[in-house]
Amino acid sequence: MAVPEAYGLGPIEVTAITGGEVEMTARLMGSGFSVSGCSGGGGVSSEGGGGVGLSCGEGPAATINDAMSLQVVEIHDNAAVLRIEPAR
Questions:
Q1: Please, is 42 exposed, middle or buried when counting C-beta atoms within 10 Å of its C-beta (0-12, 13-18, 19+)?
Q2: pTM of the model
Q3: Could you read off the pLDDT of 41-69 as tens digits, one per residue?
Q4: How far apart are CA 52 and CA 45, in angstroms?
Q5: DSSP for 68-79?
Q6: Largest Cα–Cα distance in the chain?
Q7: Mean pLDDT for the stretch of residues 14-18
Q8: Which of 9, 39, 69, 81 has most Cβ atoms within 10 angstroms of its Cβ?
Q9: Tens-place pLDDT, residues 19-48
Q10: Rounded CA gap, 2 and 4, in Å?
């Protein structure tokens, strides 16, 4: 899914939904990256070529690049509902 350029990321791609977590990747559009508040043991890893990986479970929203709020609202067998909006 495409997100506004101001968020510092290219399109976010869901790569897997497993074990109550949604795994995603995105291309970095700037020189830095930050994430805080991913619930369910969420984490971030660098993926050569200027990309990042996220793993987030249902719960409170994570803040990405101090600009974007990403929340996993619900996870179903092979689908997830994500809420993406400007960070507050």
A1: buried
A2: 0.81
A3: 344 555 555 778 888 999 889 998 889 99
A4: 6
A5: EEEEEEEEETTE
A6: 36
A7: 93
A8: 9
A9: 889 999 888 877 677 788 774 334 455 555
A10: 7
